[in-house]
Design goal:
Number of strands: 2
Order of helices and strands: HHHHHEEHH
Number of helices: 7
Distance between the termini: 35 Å
Strand content: under 5%
Strand order of the largest sheet: 1-2
Shape: globular
C-alpha cells in the first residue's frame, strides 16, 4: 500500500517542477509534516483572534495569550539556531543554551500585537528554510549547547510539532486535539499525558 504522505510529497514535487527546494531524503518526514501542519493550525487560531483578544489569559495559569505567541515565536528561533549551527563548520558546543529565554518572551509580549504576529510568521518561515537547507548527513547530527544538552537534529521537528499543537490548544481559541493529523494525538499523549502545566522548553 502506498504511504499517503510519500504520495503527497511526490505529487508536490511533480507540481513544483525543477528548481524547487525539498527536504533531504534522511529528514524525518512524518514529524516534519506534523510541525508544518502545526504551523498552519496555530496560525489559523492566531488569525482568528482580534488584537485585544491577545490580552486574555491562556489555559496555562498566569500566562497570557500574548506570552504564548511570543514563546512559540522564540521557540522557532531557538530551533533555527540549532539547525544553523549543525550546518556550519564550527566545532564544539554552540554558544548559549538551546532554550527559549523567558526575558525575551516577556519583552516581546509587551509589544504591539502586530509585532507578535510578525514574530510568529517570520520565525516559522525561517525555521522551515533552515530545515530545507539541511543536507542528508546533517540530519544525523546532534548539537550540544553551552550547558551540555545534546539535541539531535532529527528530533527538532517533533519538538516543534509538540510546541505548536500543545500551545495552540493553550490559546483557548477554538483549537481541538481532534484537529491533529493521524498519530499525533497519540504521540502527544505518550509524551506527556496530562495537559501542559507550563510553557514548554525545547
Amino acid at each position: 500500500m502506498t504511504d499517503p504522505l510519500e504520495a503527497a510529497r511526490a505529487e508536490l514535487r511533480r507540481r513544483q517542477g525543477a528548481g524547487a527546494r525539498y527536504d533531504a531524503a534522511t529528514a524525518p518526514a512524518r514529524t516534519l509534516a506534523w510541525a508544518r501542519q502545526g504551523t498552519a493550525f496555530f496560525a489559523r487560531l492566531l488569525n482568528g483572534l482580534d488584537d485585544g483578544d491577545l490580552d486574555a489569559p491562556s489555559a496555562i495559569p498566569g500566562v497570557t495569550r500574548r506570552q504564548i505567541v511570543a514563546h512559540v515565536g522564540y521557540h522557532a528561533r531557538a530551533l533555527s539556531g540549532i539547525a544553523a549551527w549543525a550546518r556550519g563548520s564550527a566545532a564544539g558546543p554552540m554558544p548559549g543554551r538551546a532554550a527559549v529565554d523567558p526575558d525575551d518572551v516577556s519583552r516581546k509580549a509587551s509589544q504591539p500585537a502586530r509585532a507578535l504576529r510578525h514574530l510568529f510568521a517570520h520565525s516559522a518561515i525561517h525555521l522551515d528554510v533552515e530545515w530545507r537547507d539541511l543536507e542528508a548527513p546533517q540530519w544525523e547530527r546532534a548539537v550540544e549547547d553551552a550547558a551540555g544538552r545534546r539535541i539531535a537534529l532529527a528530533d527538532t521537528p517533533w519538538l516543534r510539532a509538540r510546541a505548536l499543537w500543545r500551545h495552540g490548544l493553550d490559546l483557548r481559541a477554538g483549537g481541538r486535539i481532534a484537529d491533529a493529523p493521524p498519530g499525533l494525538a497519540e504521540a502527544l499523549a505518550r509524551d506527556r499525558p496530562a495537559p501542559s502545566p507550563a510553557l514548554l522548553d525545547l
